[in-house]
């Protein structure tokens, strides 16, 4: 029952076959069984379990379903569904620490906009999920919250920064989850955990100021299915008075109505890029991405190979030039005086960002962004969506820092050293070009038993086509069931230097 999807759960709630309280208890029991605690190692996906308030909300949902009669107004779209929220999505009256010693004991004065909307839609928030410090890494561990592990292989990370969200979904500890993304922080954990993650166009899902004004970032939904992820995206999205960059309607059904299953592949023109220029990509990841392309083609899509003039080095320099003028200084100011207590990856991020800002002015950074955006537009001319891997590597160590970069084995067996581990993921270009919607969906398992994902990239603001293609992929491509027995796999990760 803990692995039930949101749509199936709502149908059972309406039929009286299942109550929200019963589903919540199944999820809480699963957390008790596999999340671990100080004496029992486990996935460690949560910073806090909100069992009492969740049970009260579930009982209220029980009563609402029991009282519903034909002809009544529709019940809220998430009524009774257990939702895990990323800790950075503040809940009024609870701590908001973001894994930082500098923020220890801070209390949120108001709900984050996405929390507000989840609650208004009837969602039952039962837990808050882990992230690395200030969400600045693609693994999920911190001195404050410890190491979050991948349910498929406890030696592996679930990715980051929304690693707790991905791990909770994959392990049956949540039905839906909130996430965020500034360089892949929703899509990377989705790929590594076999779940679905959505990076909306900038502003489509409201954030919390002041960093909501950073045009690389965005909050978003994760789920175990494309349909569930679309449902949560519709709840979360739309103009909000707190975020002046937010736009569009809320909960208008435009995403869920775009889901056609396998039939949605018919007539699609799909651009295919296995490397986005010169990314080294593991053989198993390339093969699974090609498998997705072949499945779409067999179902009536046209596959068009596209090329991009990008290098991982250039994309890293472009992204860090941006971070050097916004996120890096914000982190340095927030953590001043507590540097000795920071994780090593956080100190490295702040230093890298400062160095990049000294080399590129903000206007220079905008020019770098514009070049990437123009090249992406040219590559996607004449296609409806772009298909590309989400990650380049099969796994990363759960507690890895990769301060000296990462060695990535390419499909031909050669090994290439990348200066920064962020280059081991094919995600940041679509934060540089952050008006494009991107959906990461599962494509299978790698040779080390950790999931693989593909990204479906749309034209600016064209969300419906991305969900149409993602729905087709999940109907056409078989992937293994989620691990009831966690951590079965054991394998060596890419070697760090």
UniProtKB/TrEMBL annotation:
Pfam families in the cross-refs: Amidase
InterPro entries: Amidase, Amidase_dom, AS_sf
Domain Amidase: 23-466
Molecular function via GO: catalytic activity
Domain of life: Bacteria
Annotated family: Belongs to the amidase family.
The protein's name in its UniProt record: Amidase
């Amino acid at each position: 029952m803990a692995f039930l999807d949101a749509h199936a759960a709502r149908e059972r709630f309406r039929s009286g076959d299942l109550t929200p309280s019963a589903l919540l208890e199944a999820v809480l029991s699963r957390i008790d069984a596999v999340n671990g605690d100080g004496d029992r190692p486990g996935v460690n996906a949560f910073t806090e379990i909100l069992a009492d308030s969740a049970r009260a909300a579930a009982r209220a949902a029980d009563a609402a379903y029991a009282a519903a009669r034909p002809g009544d107004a529709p019940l809220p779209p998430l009524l009774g569904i257990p939702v895990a929220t990323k800790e950075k999505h503040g809940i009024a009256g609870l701590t908001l620490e973001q894994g930082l010693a500098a923020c220890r004991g801070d209390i949120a004065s108001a709900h984050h906009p996405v929390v507000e909307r989840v609650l208004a839609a009837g969602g039952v928030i039962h837990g808050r999920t882990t992230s690395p410090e200030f969400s600045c890494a693609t693994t999920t561990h911190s001195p404050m919250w410890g190491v979050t592990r991948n349910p498929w292989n406890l030696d592996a990370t679930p990715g980051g920064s929304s690693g707790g969200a991905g791990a909770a979904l994959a392990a049956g500890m949540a039905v839906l989850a909130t996430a965020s993304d500034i360089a892949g922080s929703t899509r990377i954990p989705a790929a590594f955990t076999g779940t679905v993650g959505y990076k909306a166009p900038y502003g489509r899902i409201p954030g919390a100021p002041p960093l909501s004004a950073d045009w690389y970032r965005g909050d978003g939904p994760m789920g175990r299915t494309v349909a569930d992820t679309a449902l949560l995206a519709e709840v979360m999205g739309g103009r909000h008075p707190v975020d002046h960059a937010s736009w569009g309607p809320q909960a208008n059904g435009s995403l869920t109505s775009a889901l056609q299953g396998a039939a949605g592949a018919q007539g699609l023109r799909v651009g295919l890029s296995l490397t986005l220029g010169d990314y080294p990509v593991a053989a198993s990841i390339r093969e699974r991405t090609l498998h997705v392309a072949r499945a779409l083609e067999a179902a009536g899509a046209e596959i068009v190979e596209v090329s991009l003039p990008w290098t991982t080095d250039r994309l890293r320099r472009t992204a860090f030039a941006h971070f050097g003028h916004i996120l890096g200084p914000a982190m340095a100011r927030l953590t001043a005086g507590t540097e000795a207590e920071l994780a090593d990856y956080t100190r490295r991020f702040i230093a890298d960002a400062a160095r990049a800002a000294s080399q590129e002015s903000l206007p220079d950074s905008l020019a770098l962004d514009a070049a990437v955006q123009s090249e992406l537009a040219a590559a996607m001319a004449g296609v409806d969506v772009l298909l590309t891997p989400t990650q380049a590597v099969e796994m990363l160590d759960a507690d890895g820092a990769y301060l000296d970069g990462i060695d990535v084995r390419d499909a031909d067996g050669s090994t290439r050293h990348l200066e920064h581990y962020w280059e081991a993921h094919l995600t940041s270009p679509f934060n540089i070009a952050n008006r494009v919607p991107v959906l990461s969906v599962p494509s299978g398992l790698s040779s080390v038993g950790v999931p693989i994902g593909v990204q479906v990239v749309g034209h600016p603001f064209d969300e419906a086509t991305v969900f149409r293609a993602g729905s087709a992929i999940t109907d056409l491509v078989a992937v293994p069931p989620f691990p009831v027995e966690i951590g079965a796999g054991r394998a060596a990760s890419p070697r760090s230097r």
